[in-house]
Design a protein that fits this description.
Length: 244
């Protein structure tokens, strides 16, 4: 049986391996491509559709959920179901984010011409810039994550962590939020004192502030040009202002 030291050493190796891959993103992710991706998503008038197979698909589902959390309408497209009717979710103006480490996934290759014919644009996250998927996409985010933490190099470990760091952990989403030049928010103060600002129109921001009712009201007043308290229901109000 594996010893306690071996178990812990394996964990430390994984932590170090994945931390190194995330740190390398600053040197490997192309600045121009990243900025273009942010602007494409910030200006998207359709939905952000994410897709991928296997572990990449699981990652794509989480990325979609995070986009929805910051009020960028998003949906996961199951690549197995796509040719059996789910292509119908794709509309003019949508952006499809394909996650494929190899860039050679058959289901993704088959998806691209259909998506383009329906008027969608494609962003691919991959480690293979010369792959069929990358060559046919409108924009590529090329990652270079090095070896997987898995000792047999068969489980997607480090590469998935890098994708999460680039897309899921709010980097891309927060950039989309702050790309707006105008903020119009509705906010409510929950009984526990949580202020939550949600987008209503012409905005890509979700703001959360914790504190008491009085503190939350003060913070909102400091951050926005106008704060209106609903007198009939003091837990509801609205705020408007320029970018933070």
């Amino acid at each position: 049986m594996i010893s306690a030291d071996e178990i812990y050493d394996s964990a430390l190796h994984t932590f170090a391996n994945e931390a190194n891959a995330v740190a390398k993103l600053a040197d490997t992710v192309d600045r121009e491509s990243y900025v273009k991706a942010v602007r494409m998503i910030a200006e998207c008038e359709g939905r952000i559709i994410t897709t991928g197979c296997g572990t990449s698909g699981a990652c794509a589902k989480k990325v979609s959920q995070v986009f929805n959390c910051v009020d960028r309408a998003s949906q996961f497209l199951n690549p197995a179901d796509a040719p059996h009717g789910d292509y119908g979710m794709i509309r003019q103006g949508d952006i499809i984010i394909i996650i494929s480490k190899s860039g050679k996934t058959t289901e993704m290759i088959n998806l691209i011409p259909v998506a383009k014919a329906r008027g969608a644009r494609i962003i691919t996250v991959t480690e293979n810039p010369g792959s069929p998927i990358a060559l046919e996409s409108d924009l590529n985010l090329i990652l270079s994550t090095g070896p997987e933490a898995c000792p047999y190099q068969c489980l997607s470990t480090t590469s998935v962590t890098a994708v999460f760091a680039c897309l899921m952990q709010y980097q891309l989403d927060v950039c989309c939020i702050t790309a707006s030049t105008r903020i119009i928010l509705n906010w409510c103060i929950r009984p526990a004192g949580l202020v939550q600002c949600l987008r209503r129109r012409n905005d890509r921001m979700k703001l959360i502030v914790t504190g008491s009712y009085e503190e939350s009201s003060r913070i909102a007043a400091d951050m926005f040009e106008e704060v209106i308290i609903n007198k009939k229901n003091p837990l509801l109000g609205c705020a408007t202002g320029s970018t933070l």
